[in-house]
Amino acid sequence: MKQEISALMDGELFEDESDSLLGRVKRDSATRDDWEVYHLIGDVLRQPEHIHCGLSAKVRARMQEEPTVLAPRGRTAKHKIHTMAWSAAASLAAVGVVAWMSMQITPETSPQLALQQTALRPASAGIKNKTNEYLMAHQEFSPSTGMNSGAYYIRTAAYQPGEK
Amino acid sequence: MTDRDIDQQLVERVQRGDKHAFDLLVSKYQRRLGRLISRFVRDSAEAEDVTQDAFIKAYRALPGFRGESAFYTWLYRIGINTAKNHLLASKRRAPTSTPFDADEAESFEDASLLHEVSTPENELMSKQVVDVVQKSLQQLPEDLRSALTLREIEGLSYEEIASVMNCPIGTVRSRIFRAREAVAEDLRPLLETSKNNRW
């Protein structure tokens, strides 16, 4: 435990380890004393010229009268990072779903549909010639061309292959 | 994790309503903040009161701390402002006429000035603590003393110390702990005699 506190002070523990250890340090007075003494040793080694008289007990006594402070949720940097991470994950998931859906309807991944389309081709080719004759015969009733007014005077003619 | 990350973890605990986490920050920064405030407030009793006030102000302001700067930088700013306000309230001027920088203040090493502000009791206690720590450090085996010195004075990471001392990181971790604990063992009896004056 004491060795972990020493490593914690030096920033040499992983985040989850330090988080649980900090919880133990603040609950246990003996462990908190170790934390204080180790910090005192460090301060003495760095600046031995003047070691200011300890204040923590006095501050602790005054803290008893202070109301507990609470930061609004979502204010901490850690919370922001979590929020951003979840947003990014949701976006990626949405893109993934769309991509998966689009891949499901391509001919490469749906061979049955492609086979059905090729199977229909010979049947439609068989009626092509008859359709052309029908359209030529009823051209004057077509509403879709801009030449309707002149079409009445135009003589239409159709030829079969090999016919002169 | 860095030192700043640990402070941030403690700050977030306080922001979630954990008062005790603030104790650990006070334990860590009390001497550094006290030393800083002593530059403004020469009287040691007043400086101590101002330091306490600064910590209480910091606690009250913690919900607004977003971690954009390091906690200690933010704390030092509060300390400087509290000291200046104290001097204004007592219609005195701060001993420095130039703008004061928190980082610069941290590296302040004018020992003679600082000795002036100590009371005889404080000075005696400080001297005893320093003597015990230094004597204890000298009695440590060379490898433990080097590891602790490289960490506390030179500020090297465990990885850097391992490289300097040509040993595994686990050994560095163990040596630093054993050195600290040996010094702490020598120090505890002295601290026990002044229970009312926690360090």
N-to-C series of helices and strands of chain B: HHHHHHHHHH
- Overall mean pLDDT score of chain B? 82
Low-confidence stretches of chain B: 107-117
Quaternary status:
heterodimer
Pick out the low-confidence regions of chain A.
none
Biggest β-sheet description of chain A: none
Beta strands of chain A, count: 0
**Termini Cα gap of chain A:** 107 Å
Q: How many DSSP helices of chain B?
A: 10
> What is Rg of chain B?
19 Å
Helix content bin of chain B: over 70%
Order of helices and strands of chain A: HHHHHHHH
Q: How many beta-strand elements of chain B? A: 0
Task: Describe the protein.
The complex is a heterodimer of chains A (164) and B (199). Chain A is mostly helical and 164 residues long. Helix content of chain A is 64%, strand content 0%. Chain A has helices at 2-9, 15-27, 29-46, 56-63, 77-104, 111-126, 128-137, 148-151. In chain A, helix 1 packs across helix 3 (29-46) and helix 2 packs across helix 3 (29-46). The longest helix of chain A is centred in the middle third of the chain and has 28 residues, at 77-104. Chain A starts with a helix and ends in a 13-residue tail after the last helix. Chain B is mostly helical. Chain B is built from ten helices and no strands. The relative contact order of chain B is 0.08. Residues 107-117 of chain B have low confidence and may be disordered. At the A-B interface, helix 1, helix 2, helix 3 and helix 4 of A face helix 1, helix 2, helix 3, helix 6 and helix 7 of B.
